[in-house]
Amino acid sequence: MTMPLSEEYLKSVSESQLKDRAYTPFELAKYDRDSIEDIKKSIKNGKYKDREIVKESMEFIEALANRMNIAITNEKKDSKTTWELETELNDIKKVFDQLENL
């Protein structure tokens, strides 16, 4: 059971410190990372023969990129560093471009 924060504690800590303590940066879930890796391997091994499968993979990447863009926007509003997330997004965009060129 979580104890509520005391009034004394709340007075001793600034609002920004409370936000920092409550802040959890966005991270790609393991299954999203695994899916991206599977897509990369499939591209490399020439396994994309069916246009419908390519389309499904592109839709997955697009939805993931949209979630990441929202996270980046929110983190920037809170003045948080987003370099790692932006780098991952750029890598995902490259995979999307590869699928688009199949």
Quick tags:
102 residues, mainly alpha, 5 helices, elongated
User: Any low-confidence stretches, pLDDT <50, length ≥5?
Assistant: none
Q: Could you say which structural class the secondary elements and strand pairing correspond to?
A: mainly alpha
Q: Give the number of helices.
A: 5
Major sheet details: none
What is the number of strand segments?
0
Tell me the helix content.
Answer: over 70%
Give an account of the 3D structure.
The protein is an all-alpha fold and 102 residues long. The protein is 73% helix and 0% strand. It contains five helices and no strands. The longest helix is centred in the middle third of the chain and has 27 residues, at 51-77.
Please outline the helices and strands.
Layout: H1 7-12, H2 15-22, H3 30-44, H4 51-77, H5 83-100
Summed up, what is this model?
The protein contains five helices and no strands. With 102 residues, it is mainly α.
